[in-house]
Amino acid sequence: MINDILTVMWKERKGLLRYQGSRTRAVLGLLIPVVMLGIYLPLQIGRALVEGPWSLLTSVFIPMMSVGMMIPESFAGERERHTLGTLLASRLPDEAILFGKVAVAVGYAWGMALMLLLVSLVMVNVTHWDGQVLLYTPITALVNVALSLLMASLVAGLGVLISLRSATVQGAQQTLMTATLFPLVLLQMIPLLLLNVVPNGRARLKELVAAANPTQIILIVMAVLLVLDLGLLMAALARFKRARLILN
Question: How far apart are the C-alpha atoms of 74 and 100, rounded to whole Å?
Fold first, then answer.
């Protein structure tokens, strides 16, 4: 099984950053968030990037964007290029095909996030040097490593499910973008509802923020992400039916 997964990964690595046939467009699509999170943000907030939660933005948004560009190609791209039938006719097990495609997308996005976190750290040290090397705290570093991996796996699992059902890469990308951004919009609406709908909402929001334990919140979020990752991967395995895909 391992050799089969590695075979699929070897095949998929040649299609990295394929975005409707153009790697240049994919690179340009990633350039803006890389500049914003890797250069502009460290320049603006300085030491707070290391001492506060700002680095978590990189661990959330870079995996989302990187996987969101790549994973729709996994099966919808094969279908558009009329190579899906050839892939499914191979001796490779279903699990190897699925895991190989997911592993390449997750590995690339995770590596991008970690590299950008390192670039941000270097930028902070260069622009705000005071004689001491600034480093992430061990907890912050561990959270960033784990969160970026969980976010990449989450979008990959959801994206594979969508790509399996989508007839086109563009359709898969649009659906995946909607599915990933909708929860973020809801999270932004909760404070607004507390402020504008709930009586004494501003005071209650302040109480919630004051009583919140950041460590517990992060652990709960990561536990939820882990459960979602496993659930989406199991759903993708259940959905991956070779005979059905060939007929479609």
Answer: 10
